[in-house]
Fold each of these.
Amino acid sequence: MTAVPVPVAPIRSRRSFLRRRLPTTFVLGSIILLFHIVVAITGPLWSPYTFNKVGTGKPFENASTAHLFGTDGLGRDVFSRVVYGAPTVLILATTSTAIGVVLGSFIGLLSGYLGGWFDEVLMRIFDALISIPFLILALLIISAAGATAAGSPSLLIGVVAFIYTPRIARMARAVALDLVTRDFITAARARGDSAWSIVIREMLPNTTGTLLVEFAVRAGYAPILIGSLGFLGFGIRPPNPEWGLMISENRSAITTAPITVFGPVLVLASLVIGLNLFSDGLARLLGRSAQFGAQ
Amino acid sequence: MGAASLLDVRNLTLDYRTAGGWLNVVNGVSFALEAGEAFGLVGESGCGKSTTAYALLGYRKPNSRLRTGSVYLAGEDLFALSVTELQRVRGSRVALVPQNPTTALSPGIRIGQQITETMRAHNIGTNDVARDARMLELLGRVWLPDPVRTAQKYPHQLSGGQQQRVVIALALACDPELIVLDEPTTGLDVTTQAQILALLSELRREQRMTMVYVTHNMGVVAAICDRVGVMYAGQLIEDAPADVLFRAPRHPYTRGLIDSVPGLQQPKRGRSIFMRGLLDRNALPNGCQFAPRCTFALESCFINPQRLEIIDDTHEVACERNSEIANLVAAQPPVEIVYTDAAGARTDAPLLTLENVSLGYGRGGLFANAQRLIVRDVTLEIRPGETYALVGESGSGKSTIARAIAGLNPLSGGAIQFGGVPLPSRVQGRSRETRRAIQLIFQNPDASLNPRQTVTQIIGRPLEMFFRLRGTELRERVASLLADVRLTPAYADRYPAQLSGGERQRVAIARALAAQPRLLLCDEILSALDASVQADILDLLRDLQARTGIAYLFISHDLAVVRALADRVGVLYRGVLCEAGQVEEVYTPPFHPYTEMLLSAVPEIGKTKLRTIVRSDASLSSSFNARGCPFADRCPRRISGVCETTPPPLRRVSETHALLCHIPLEELRNIVPDPIDTP
């Protein structure tokens, strides 16, 4: 019984996983986001009117070639206002989520690592915060901040970050609990590394994938949060063209000139969808790289 | 090997799909089995033996393809069958005993039900009553105590060894023609392993079972297989009856593999000279796959692909030079490498002393009642430059002791002294010098390195921390440490995912050495590695000790490896040190009965008879027998009435050797263990 020898094929580089197709959701999401970013940056250059030019047309006009989204109650072009409002929501959403993620991950990792009383107490406090519906919590904080502070972007950023921090902390803590059992953490402890050093040096690099995806997911939801606050009148003050605020301002014309409401609604929705697709695609991409990279 | 073979594997060639294309994993493997034969498939990890074994069930992983070849079971081509037909074959005609019994059993279904489920699926037994009866009979046949009660239990309520026996019962349920076992004893204690092997031997004898046994443990193969096939890089390179293979292996790789395995009765020995380096899949030549590592390789070996050739009636080798090599080796026996101890390393003052140390769960203090102690009253000392081995089964407390010395477990009693000074029990309380001087290496190389750090960062951290090295200085030191563990500087920028198990373990050793410790705590560092890699690292450890005078606390359950490395040994059972002494003393009579059991349980090449061990398991109930001897319930030599109630006295065999037993020394001295046949 002889074995026919078969030549062994050489192995090509492992890097070729990148050459394969990127996930569809990632591509789609990135396109939508890119579109929004481009509009946000270049908007003022090409938008037909400025956001506060009143009387460009009759109030609550329907869609037309001059006014793609019609006009609002003061005769301002809704489309231009949407365009001018784009950077606001993008910056608010990303900044507040970023702050929430950074704070939440540090606190969560540290809490997961230390365990014991610190972890228990902190997590119960966070549980309490999470259990309060976010809109109510946001309204509470904004009201408490007083009339002068209300409407400032920093307050909004602070509020959203405050809402996100406990949620992200819980995620990060879960990752920490898993990592803490691994021997390389034990080795670091046996060396005498401080808790902080372990969190930053050993644990954080292992959480970047998870946190990146968390960031994308939360950032996808932030525009809704900010829009909701704007709609209720607790967000950015008029005459700033914040989308939620615009939807609220124009809602009296929802039957006569529906485009003035649905224009901003659809644009907001598209941003949220874009962010969601992007975060989903990112998760797949990172998950896939973990599958092939670790060989 | 005629048409009457039960199993006929012909030219099996399988590829895996990877990111870089198709990777060949099994390359033209052919062998045949008669009914009633036990065939052992050995090789290092990654050689394709598991893939081949699973192919015997007509199974291949989703991302793989059968490039060519076939598997015939009693004349039927398994890969040509439809899914439904295969379902009928699997379980009833071919059964599998997989590696990890815990994951092989469904956690939410009772044991008995799982077995009857298999029977029902294959229409065995006329009704439920008949099936239950057969199920109970099976449980009894695999030596499970109290089958009626065991059948009602869930898998997590059984020990590892018991779970594995249930899996074997599952495999037997439908009386299959062929049983494939994929490393079934990996992860089990040596005594449990011996039980399973004895069980398998008995089943073979009684039932004429045909078996394919996949393993990397040569001793196990020698214990129960009739024939052995050795695989390397996907190819079957030698196929011979077991006794012939071990007596006169013809392929250089087989020789190397056999030489890598340390023996129980052999003193410290250098490693084999027939094999070097590690398998590098990116650099396989067109000819013989083993040529890059073979010390006998010639130009022609790299060019000509090797095929299996028949050299005797039953012996096949894939090496064109095998007869020349046989003559070469006969003429010149392998050189023994002798290690001289670092001069002056063995002074009298002990480096580490444990005095009456007790350890428990939790954070000391509150939980230190006698019932919950893991380690009880252990006293030992380690001198500079020596290797002290701590031997015991899982649950004996040996890892806990290592962690306590490293400062990760508080003491519940007793004291530890290091370098003559009391050692604070927590890491935080220790000076930097002390933290530097004691380093810990772990068992699992996958978990002990941070997957997001490069080798340089991993090794550099202790350098940065203890010696404040930075930049080029740091990189130079990292390179020299890599050289110490026999890795090239090219490894410096790699991530752990790009290293093999043996390489990762070396990086872990380099990290520990970076701190220039005086004591290295090795917690089962070799258990997860193949025999040849183990041999390499053992060699490395011996070399380092000879050069630097570092002391090792070497924890292991592998007695053969301990024999090859240790100066002194302590045998731990359930947290009590039963026997301690110089390694030669402990490995020869008089034995503590537990030591005797451990030694006889080790399957060895050349040991053709496996002693039947007492069938009782380590009982799962961890209620400590706080009064008598902890080993009393399992001891085959116990004196009933005495051993359970009174603590055994300390018997001094010599100045350096002592054990705890009620049986008088003269009687222990006269106990002669079963003779070990030497080759």
Amino acid sequence: MNGPGAGDVLARCRAEQRAALVGYLPVGYPDVPTSIRAMETLVEAGCDIVEIGIPYSDPLMDGPVIQRAAAAALAGGSRVADVFTAARAVRAAGAPPLVMTYWNLVLRMGEDLFADRLADAGGAGLITPDLIPDEASAWIAASDRTGLDRVFLVAPSSTPERLVRVTAACRGFVYAASTMGVTGARSQVGPDVEDLVRRVRAVTDLPVCVGLGVSSGEQAAQVARVADGVIVGSALVSCLLDVEPEQGLAALRALTEELADGVRSR
Amino acid sequence: MTDDRAEKEEQRVGRFGAFGGRYVPEALIPALEELDEARRKAALDPAFLAELEHLQRTYIGRPSIITEVPRFAEHCGGARVILKREDLNHTGSHKINNVIGQALLTRRMGKSRIIAETGAGQHGVAAATAAALFGLECTVYMGRVDTERQALNVARMRMLGAQVVPVEHGSATLKDAINEALRDWVTNVRTTHYLLGTVAGPHPFPEMVRDFHKVIGEEARAQVLDLTGALPSAVIACVGGGSNAMGIFHRFIPDAEVRLIGVEAGGAGIESGRHAARFASASPGVLQGAMSYLMQDEDGQTTQSHSISAGLDYPSVGPEHAFLRDSGRAEYRYATDEQAMRAFELLCRTEGIIPAIESAHALSGAMEVGPEVGPDGILLVSLSGRGDKDMETAADYFGLLDDVAEDGEQ
């Protein structure tokens, strides 16, 4: 890894008395070059950390928007190794790239090789939606060796014991799922958020970023009042669905700016 | 995987050697732990066991009989062939064993809704049946392709009061139905139990589902001993996810002289790439919560399986089968669509029993294994389901209704 990690950026945002904006896009949608331009657009428009998704055949934590983008990316020939190209570009644009991936894709390459290639590409670490710390011994070793962040998820259903166990294994930040369910924009951010963030803070000093359901500047501001970072995915991906690339990138820039204002206006 | 890592994982809860585990979103962990605790307590609770036994006897129709099939056996090198008749259970397959058990657990956990995935429709029908019996709300996810292959089962589920949701994305088969069920579960886990229908998925499902089916092998072992005075030379079952196979194998695992043989779906043949013979072609990987053998490309993306039988059309396999295979205790072979349909027809014509096409794969296995064990051998075959649901597929395959269709067009 060359350059700041997610934790460094979150600390800087905290010093600026604001929350960080974490934006998710899948590599390869609508094609690899456009997806990389879209990630660069996120950074230019005020996104602090970019979460790069690797399209997967069986995305069981994703709702319809990300499912569609992932399926189209795979049909278009997107490969796992494209994520390293994207990570380089995001790092060059000035933000830490965190890779969001279902576990089998890492397992297939091998935890060590994946970690080496990601670190070499300037990647900051991994967010692992279907890997719990209990199953992660090889990844924990590989990330310790390479210094990569490892972000595990907690959910409103997490018991106090699980919160301790999961947050103890995290490095960079803790990903708090705002609501029970899959990814996708929601008209309201779940009422469980504040309670969950409080419960996480009770067991760890790590920053807490909240994801699932945020789609507008107003919601981002609402979440920014309690969390260190606001994670937005489906709403950003939606900008790129069913439109010409230039039009999609313009919409993406506008939404990112709105969200970036949101995280500063808590 | 290095030996030392495999060794460490062997000692972990929910692992079968290097296989199994819990590769799921953290949000589901509390529900999996609740379920694990509920099933462990239930297994020690005389009241639970008595109710399960009562329902097995008075509702499912257990014990299921065994039937010796000498005319079919003439095509198996002269070995004696004995069928374990899970097709005679209420709802027509072994699936009801697990469903009744999990429905009882659902009630114990105070949940009011079950969801299920289904491929052939057997598990969906069984789940809808249990939901009706216990007054639970029920949603069944079924791939669009399968709803077409098994339209009658869709009607049966709806008749029983279940909501059937066709799943359009991915390959629109069993795997995609499971993804959709998992999405529902992670959203509604507080009120909903995911009544998974096979020995796959995250711990404790592979163990729990096997335990609700192990009655098949326990009964069959005693029945075969009673009939023949000996243990069978081989126990043969079809393997999709692998629940009927684990159910009939389990009691025989300590009987080292009994061969355990799983028959996967060879589809259009291994070389065609259109099959579901995981052990013939796949490598270890994670899908839908468990580490097992998985049909995947070099990136780790799941590749599409194929079988004429919806119930075997799954790109992974229960983790305990992966363990039994790697440890050498069980052997796995495959039957192509064509071989399975030949066995299907043969059992109909020689014995007057119409098997499920899934089970016909096991029968095809018996036709191959028979000559290996010789005339003194005894083959115990799991007839996991009946074939009524497959009549449309069979009619197409054998052209049974060609004249009728022509008449209709005139």
